[in-house]
Every structure is written in C-alpha cells, then in structure tokens.
Amino acid sequence: MPESLYYFIQQLLNGLTVGSTYALIAIGYTMVYGIIGMINFAHGEVYMIGSYIAFMAIAALALFGLEYLPLMIAGAFVISMIVTSAYGYSIERVAYRPLRGGNRLIPLISAIGMSIFLQNLVRLAQGSRDIAMPSLVTGGISIGPDAGFQASLSYMQMIIFAVTLVTMTLLTLFITRSRMGRACRACAEDLKMTNLLGINTNGIIALTFVIGAALAAVAGVLLGMYYGVINPYIGFMAGLKAFTAAVLGGIGSIPGAVLGGLLLGVTEAITSGYFSSEYKDVVAFSLLILILLFRPSGILGRPEVEKV
Fold this sequence. Notes:
Helices cover 73% and strands 4% of the residues. The protein is mainly α. It has a single domain, classed as ABC transporter involved in vitamin B12 uptake, BtuC (Orthogonal Bundle). The chain crosses the membrane at residues 20-39, 46-65, 71-90, 102-122, 155-175, 203-227, 282-301.
C-alpha cells in the first residue's frame, strides 16, 4: 500500500481516539437536554475536575506504594468518577433545581456562572500552570513497511477504544434494560406525565447529572493520560467541542452524541494532518454551521413536536 494510505489510517486512528472521548462528554449534554430541555454548560468543567482528581489519585496511590499499573489506573477511574458524580449532583441541586420551571434563560446563565466558578476554584486551588500527567502506558504497534511511513496505534489508544466501548455498552444496557433506565426514557418523553404517574422525576434528573458527570470523568482520565498535560482551562474547549458533537449528532439522542463525537474527532484529525492544526477548530465549527443550516435537528435527531 502507498505511504499516503498509511498516513490517512494514522489520522483516522487519531481522530477516532479523540472523538471517542468527545462522545463520552457529549452524552452528558444530550441526556440532560433530553430530559429537562436545558444545556449544562458547567459540564466541561466537570470533565476538567475529573482529570485533576485522576492526577491526585494516581499520585496518592503511588505515594502509598501501589505499583501495579492496572490497579492504579482502575483506582484513578473509580475515585475520579465518584468525586465528579458528587459534583454533577451538586450542580443539579444548586444551579438547576431551584430555577426549574421558569424562563429557560435563567438556568442557562446559572450554568455559565457555575462553569466560571468551578474553573476559578480549580485555578485558585491548583494554580493556572500546566501539570504533567504521569505517563503510565507507553508503547504500541506499528502498521506499514519498515522502510516507509508507518501508522502507529499506541497502547493508550487501545485503552481509550476499549474503555469507551465498554462504557457505551454498559450505558446502553442501563437505558434499555433497567427500571431506572426506563424511567429516564419516560422522563425524556413527557416529564409532567411521568411525574403524575408517581415516578420521582427529581431523582431521575439528578441521576442523569450523576451519570453524565461520571462519563465526563472517564473522558478526563483518558484524555489526561493521552495528552499528558492538564490545566484549569481544558474544560472550556472540551465542553464546547462535546456540545458541538451533541448538536451534530442530534441533541437529545445518545447514538447521535456518539456519532457526532466520532465525526468531529475525525474531522479535526484530518484537518490537522492534511492542512494545519490552526484550522481544525475553524473546520469543526464550520461543519456545525452547515449541519444547523441544512438539518437543524442534527444527523440522528428528531424534529421537536409541540405538545398540546
């Protein structure tokens, strides 16, 4: 095969890697919107906090003498998901629940305020400098001839693909098979009727915030170890990209969030690989504009039906 094909494969792998994590974050946006029709703009900061908690968890486990790598990574995932789930629950109780039922603009402003608060809280507590995440997983495999360009698939990328697949599968089983999952789908269909039928809608809404925060934590751990650098500002752009992915796929649709995340990640990687990394954001948001112009509901989204 020609070298150009291996180069394309490399960019495709890079795009799917980043796109998988975008999808994890985007699910948090789409679940909250699907149930209460609002955007949680503090969600990107939850992802950022997940990265910091993972860093502190890894440092603490190493300090206590834990050297078994799989157990250290698993510990970082569990601790990060628990802490960020608490943040997600708190955001719903503080920034959303007291304002629910009023003008939609008010909770939106509250969420933006919460985003700024969390970003500055971490900046004051940890400093604004970049922090290097420890490189726990190294090495990989190469694809291509020894004499020419080789596409590489790192072990860290394999972990990202595997964790994303397992997480998406578990979420799908939860939504489709469990009692709480059916309650989530009922709330998404008609929140008022679900409440009248005796389902604790406040608890279901809080649960969606907790699940979204846990998925953002998974993305935070994965991207933190993949890029090796974290700072208090990574949540803003990651949250914006994940929101873009959710809109691309169809806000309110979980498969749409996954498709939008993968599409956005591949678009960015192809742009960076064949043009310049400076243009990747321009192309990504131009894609969003085109989707909104020609299919406002997104690729897999359904047009809103006015309930009377």
